[in-house]
Recover the amino acids of this structure.
């Protein structure tokens, strides 16, 4: 118990605040302090689409097929495959149909069966920012190779929205409503993305209340789920917790909400933790933290993309690393369904594919090993303790009390 008579004025204010929040000072159980935090999460992968869209070199179709397969074999069940928009604007995705055909093939279905994977559990997503891309997805569905789910996107800050879509928000909402109806008829799920929740790289500060209203609008017009996106790493942990608490108060089903974080200031892991504490259960990331704004250059040729980049240094652009996010969540004891070591291996391979050092720390340092790294131990400790007549587990001098006695102040 806390001895309240010995508390300083600052400490007393802290105790009062924790009591206001219903937190017991002697409670060490994390899940009792944050009762909405899940014991099980879903983590989708968006490397092949969001990760590769920012690369200024074409990633071979064979490499894309390899990583799509391997990510699924490693436990991914929600995966973004490609972008069905114009290959003129984003030539990185000129192989969209070939990738979808590959994942719909009997060969791949048989591989899943051999590895104990229920093919029907896999959800293939394609990005379709505008109606022509939605129509293309429906045509591919009719051919038997279409995606299970597609994605459209709004930004609460209209300059950012215009840069991505080329149209105003009112016009886009009407277009999205038409597209959702088409998707319902075709048996395709629609994910509605809300961006610039915590700020815009173009227009600056935004109001989180607008993003909550935009999220409700997506559900009103029939979206299957909502991706809540921090597209430039603007979010702070406190605001992430506040926002997702607001979202779950308004739309309580956690299966409706996906947290999408970019990493630009090395604080996105705190955002993931804050989202977990608020009760979010679905996340996504990319191998190596790849990704960002669509490239405006590919190989030796300038391309349209979405125009000029929003940043000055490409080293500080990208998403949360799938590898690091998995290790973070795994070491918290939260179930996720992945083979973590296999993902760490894929992260190392991805650096060779891309041709540079990527942003994952976990592929270098690995997981925290409970057995330690005894190969680094300094020789001679056992003999020294025997010579000093100390027991192997003795940490304090002979004669000291079993437990420390703190001085009275």
């Amino acid at each position: 118990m806390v001895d309240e008579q010995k508390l300083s004025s600052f400490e007393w204010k802290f105790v009062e605040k924790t009591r206001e929040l219903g937190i017991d000072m002697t409670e060490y159980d994390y899940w009792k302090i944050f009762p909405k935090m899940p014991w099980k999460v879903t983590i989708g992968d968006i490397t092949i689409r969001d990760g590769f869209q920012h690369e200024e070199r074409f990633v071979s179709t064979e490499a894309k097929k390899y990583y799509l397969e391997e990510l699924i074999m490693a436990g991914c069940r929600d995966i973004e495959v490609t972008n069905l928009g114009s290959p003129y604007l984003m030539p990185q995705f000129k192989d969209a149909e070939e990738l979808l055909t590959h994942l719909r093939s009997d060969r791949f279905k048989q591989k899943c069966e051999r590895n104990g994977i229920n093919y029907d559990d896999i959800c293939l997503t394609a990005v379709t920012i505008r109606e022509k891309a939605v129509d293309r997805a429906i045509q591919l569905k009719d051919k038997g190779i279409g995606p299970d789910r597609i994605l459209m996107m709004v930004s609460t800050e209209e300059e950012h929205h215009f840069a991505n879509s080329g149209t105003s928000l009112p016009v886009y909402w009407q277009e999205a409503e038409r597209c959702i109806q088409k998707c319902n008829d075709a048996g395709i799920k629609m994910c509605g993305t809300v961006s610039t929740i915590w700020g815009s790289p173009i227009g600056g500060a935004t109001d989180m209340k607008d993003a909550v209203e935009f999220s409700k609008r997506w559900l009103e017009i029939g979206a299957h789920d909502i991706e809540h996106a921090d597209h430039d790493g603007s979010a702070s942990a406190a605001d992430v917790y506040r926002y997702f608490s607001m979202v779950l108060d308004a739309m309580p089903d956690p299966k409706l909400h996906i947290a999408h974080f970019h990493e630009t200031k090395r604080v996105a892991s705190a955002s993931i933790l804050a989202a977990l504490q608020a009760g979010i259960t679905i996340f996504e990331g990319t191998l190596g933290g790849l990704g960002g704004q669509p490239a405006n250059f590919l190989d030796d040729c300038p391309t349209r993309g979405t125009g000029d980049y929003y940043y000055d240094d490409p080293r500080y652009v990208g998403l949360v690393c799938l590898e690091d996010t998995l290790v973070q969540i795994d070491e918290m004891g939260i179930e996720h369904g992945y083979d973590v070591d296999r993902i760490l291996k894929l992260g190392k391979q991805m650096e060779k594919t891309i041709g540079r050092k990527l942003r994952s720390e976990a592929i270098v340092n690995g997981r925290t090993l409970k057995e330690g790294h005894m190969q680094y131990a300094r020789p001679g400790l056992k003999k020294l303790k025997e010579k000093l007549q100390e027991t192997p587990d003795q940490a304090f001098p002979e004669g000291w009390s079993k437990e420390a006695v703190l001085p009275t102040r």
